[in-house]
Every structure is written in C-alpha cells, then in structure tokens.
Amino acid sequence: MLERLQFSLPLTTIIAAPVDLVWDVVKDIPSYPSIYSSCVSVERQPDTNTVSKGGGADKSSSSTNNNKLSVSKDPLEERPAKLLGSRWKFTRISVFENQTYGAPATITQVSVTDTSRVIVLSTYEMLGSTCSLKMSVEKVDASLSNDASSRSVRGSGTNSERRDSVNSTASSTKQQLFEKEEACQLTVSMTMIPYQFFVKLLGIMCCLCLLKWRARIAMECDLEDITSYCEEKYKERLNAEKVEEG
To answer: What is the pTM of this model?
Structure first.
C-alpha cells in the first residue's frame, strides 16, 4: 500500500562548467562535506555487494541489500566497480532544527554515455522515508544558457545569508564562464516512500506535504552549493590556463 504513496521531486539547474568537471564533483563522495554546507561527514561502509568484471552485480554475493544494481555498458564507463554497490553513511545537518542526522546509502546505479552521466544513491532512512536520489549531468549549449543566473534555485534557513553573499557576484561570473561555451545541466530527482508510522501519525496528506517541503528545501540548498563549488573550480582552472599561456 505504501508504494501507492511514492512520489518524485525533480529539480534542475544550469552550471557554468564543463560536464566532466561537474561529474567529477558529483561522484567525489568523500569530498561532499567540503561541497555541501549541510553535509557534516561521509564515511565509507563495508561493502555488501560486489561487481563482476563484466560490470554487472556478482550473483555470488551474499548481500542482504534488496536494491537492484545497474551499470552502463557504454565503453566510456571507467571501472564502475569503484562506485557501484559501495555503501556510505552521510551525516547531515537540518536547516530547520539545526540538528544532525545520519543516513546510510548505497550507490545502485552508475551510467556514463557521450551525452550524460548518472548516479543513483538509495537509502532506507531519510527524512522518515525510504528514498533514492538520482543525479544526472548533461551538456547544454552555453549560448542558450545566459539566463542561468536567474534560474538558480534558492534555499532558506540558516544557509540563506551565506548564499546571498555568494549570489551577489554570481551573475557576472556566470557570464564570463559562459563565454567559454562550457555549461551543463544538473538534474536532481528524489523519489520517496514515507514510513507507515508517519502516515498513521500525521495522515496521508500531511505526511506527503511535510516530506515534499523538507526534501525540496534540502535539495535547493544542495543545488546552490554544488553550483557555486563547480563554477569556482572552473574559474580556477581558467585562471591557471591563462597563467600558463602568459
């Protein structure tokens, strides 16, 4: 019955940075605390899934994880076993209560093609629900993305003051980076199924509204963080190239 309450919440932003750079940041899970202001720590957990040399999940694994693992067969994929099936424990801080909470997650999909890169993290314990987080990076035409600064999502809560200072100079920086014709689209989609306990406690409508609201705020904050981080990294790369040329 709870599967009928499943919902997905997608958010998209344009980042003035190359696809490869953004993808490297997205899959650099140990560095999440330095990327996301709401991420306190990340710990690698013992793996319960193994990946065969052919790229698929090893059937001989004694895993008790019910998540289905999938991996791209595209030749561009570089050793997906490094990520696929790996388990992590994320410690985050809520922008509302200013309290930390832990969320174990498993990487259940890694896919790389010539047009997009995708990674999916699945967890059974996030904001009172089981959920999966899909992050997709795709290249876009920079000439069509000059309005990206006005399209960036906004967060709220304890991180808003810091974001206001960052966004005050974001517009000019984005324009300079877009002139290099490097831009990509980052789409984050969270699919959630609420716990039965919370459904009974709050009621269906109240439970779903609360989950969607809290999830959206957290996702907006994370999107702003990763956008600022990637664009700053790209700016540093361009400055380094100018120094070498000079």
So the answer is: 0.74
Count other C-beta atoms under 10 Å from residue 173's C-beta: 17
Adjacent-strand bridge partners of 68: none
Residue 170 tokens, joined = 């974001």
pLDDT attached to residue 114 = 86
Give the start-end residues of each E strand in the chain: 7-15, 39-45, 70-71, 87-93, 100-112, 116-123, 129-139, 184-194
Residue 211 confidence (pLDDT): 80
For helices 160-167 and 204-245, the axis angle rounded to 10 degrees is 40
Question: How far lies 123's CA from each of 74, 83, 130, in Å?
Answer: 26, 15, 6
Whether residue 31 contacts residue 197, with contact meaning beta carbons closer than 8 Å, is answered with no
- List 92's β-bridge partners, or say none: 39, 101
* Nearest partner of 191 among 11, 28, 36, judged by Cα: 11
Task: For residue 7, report the phi and psi dihedrals to the nearest 5 degrees.
Answer: -145, 160
